[in-house]
Amino acid sequence: MRAARIAFVVLIAACVQASAQPAVVAQGAYPEGLLWHGGRMLFAEMGADRISMIEGEATRAFWRESGCGPTSIAPFGATGFLVNCHLGRMAVEVSAAGATGRRFRAIPDGGPMQGPNASASDGRGGVFFSDSGIFSVGAPATGRVYHLSAMGVMTEVANGIRYANGTAFDPDTRTLYVSEHLARRVLALRLDDRHRVVSSQVFADFAQHAATRAFSYPEAGPDGLALRPGLLVVAEYGEGRVHLFDRAGKHLNMLKVAMPFVDTVAWDGAGNLYAGGAYQNTRPPFEGAVVRFAPAEWQR
Predict the structure, then answer these.
(1) Over the stretch 34-81, which tens digit does the pLDDT of each residue have?
(2) What is the per-residue DSSP string for 30-70?
(3) Which phi and psi (to 5°) does residue 11 adopt?
(4) Does residue 10 form part of some domain?
(5) Does residue 14 lie within any of the structural domains?
(6) CATH code at 52?
(7) Nearest to 45 by CA among 58, 24, 62
(8) What is the pTM of this model?
């Protein structure tokens, strides 16, 4: 009887641990584009036209511009950043002090941007970023990915993507990971030194994994990406799920968050995993949150 009682207590404890929610570290208006930089976590708030910074228990505005609708921020140049204004259809250079610099509105052929979305440093002062296209299951595959050098030279890296969304770049292997959101898959593009694709493969097809195959939101799909040695983390927008894959594309773990429209993930310097997103996507300012999983939570 005593052994059975102990087993029951252990079972209950395991269930409580498995259902434990990650710590909420910030509230925001459609949090996107988490970036760990200089010992601090920055994130975009599309619903508030600002970039915010988490400092201890507080959150403060770092940069803002009316009409921007920012969705990401990435290191750019020697010390500054590049902010993608998704609603404003441009990328904006921002200094380390939060001052606005150059604006980039045109793509290499001179046409306008569709809606710059996610971004990732190239490790050399430049930035890779997605230019998503139309967010509709029936829309044509017009998503693209560009590279912007610190000198302001933009080149096209890839096109024909069904809503190009999250991006992450591994400079050691020169592999650019891109979420093809509406195709429900993540692509792995191997690049040469001039940012041209030399090989392309499907890194993760959500239709092929038990943990990702079923979905209820019609436009659910892979969104923000975050790299760590041996791991790629993928936020699944519309389903409130965060997935961990190894670098061979094997699904390792799935974490639940309270925000159905989770769209961004990032690691800090201590191995904590952050995720951000909105609770709803129909009523401005699109209330959301940023949460943190300790290593013991995401390693389960």
Answers:
(1) 999 999 999 999 999 999 999 988 999 999 999 999 999 999 999 999
(2) SEEEEEEETTEEEEEEGGGTEEEEEETTEEEEEEE-TT--E
(3) -65, -45
(4) no
(5) no
(6) 2.120.10.30
(7) 62
(8) 0.93
Give the E-state strand segments of 89-126 in sequence order: 90-94, 100-104, 116-121
**Encoding tokens for residue 157?**
């890296």
- How many alpha carbons fall within 13 Å on the CB side of residue 82? 31
At 262 the three-state DSSP class reads strand
Residue 144 CB burial class (10 angstroms; 0-12, 13-18, ≥19)? buried
**Residue 164 domain flag:** yes
**Looking at residue 21, what is its pLDDT?**
82
Rounded CA-CA distance 72/86 in Å is 9
In whole angstroms, give the CA distance from residue 135 to residue 44: 19
- Give the tens place of pLDDT for each residue, 98-121: 999 999 999 999 999 999 999 999
Number of domains the chain contains: 1
